[in-house]
Amino acid sequence: MIDTVLAPLEWVVAWLMVNFHALFSAIGLPEESGFTWSLSIVGLVIVIRIVLIPLFVKQIHASRRMQLIQPEMQKIQKKYKGKTDPESRQAMTQETMGLYKRTGTNPFSSCLPILLQSPVFFALFRVLQGLPKIANGTQEPIGAMTQELAKSAEASTVFGAPLSSYFLEAPNLNTQIVTVVLIIAMSVTTFTTQRQLMMKNMPANAMDNPFAKQQKVLLYLMPIFFAISGINFPIGVLLYWTTTNLWSMGQQFYTIRRMPAPGSPAEKALEARRIKSGKEHKKFSIPGLGHDSGTEDIPDSPTAETKPKSGQRQQPKRKNRVKPAGQGDGSPDAKPPAAPNGDSPTTKGGSLSAKPPASPNGGSPRAKPPGVKPPATADDSP
Among residues 77, 96, 182, 206, which one has the fewest Cβ atoms lying within 10 Å of its Cβ? Predict the structure, then answer.
């Protein structure tokens, strides 16, 4: 079953290696050199990763969608926390799948590049493992990898180490040294790639869930795993894996800078750069979410002072004025001021304690200017 699945990939891997070897030989590199065959493996990595770029883009979008739906996922998990009965578990699964369908999120999309790259990795492993057998004629050629080319690849060395050699079956010390260097390089690049993803492209609220804690553990366990298992890989496979990690590191750096995860430190840095350059920053959002994670709080504007409308007369404010002595103080000797027509003003509200006497004929009293006698009336005549 495995041979049936990997046979076409082995043919493709062998064909790419042979053609890159011919290309590098045509530009002047030695055909028997191990560096020429090593560059052929690097060319194989580049072709495979270019083919996987569309899937990588889908992986990035799926990862960003997974980050946005985390609040809704936490609500569902909190709703069914502690419920272990089959009905509750089924309801939780249905709500989770409904959330995926409503938001167009596929949790398996983030694994596609790794899953599709793994068969290529094993196909290269089998091609390199079969080089000695193809060279001595005990195994049939694999595609374009003929017996002559297999002899050339098997005889080539990188710093004295054959590409198909292992650490455990190293023919010399140089092979062990080259293997250890490549294992360290593979482990360091794996650690750096994963740490870059967690430190820059994960929001703060996503660092506390169980999945993030598992990733933190894997961050330190994966390099150890590669260091232990690397002694069983040929040098050509170690070179392939290290080159793949370097490609992933650069591709991830570019993606995090241009398309960061929502709420991550990388998104805040992108927003700051766009604001500084005068560009508009639009946050990534998806339809179908029930929470308002994308809304922003708008600060209240300061209360403006109320101004009178145009055409409306504003009433003057009362000012405390110093009154002359004897006016408005309520003393009995206070006299009201004379009116322009000589009539005395009528007191209102009891502001004056003494009222002027009424005239004999019921008329209003006349104010008497000081030093002037009023004219005589008919009743006063003798």
Answer: 77
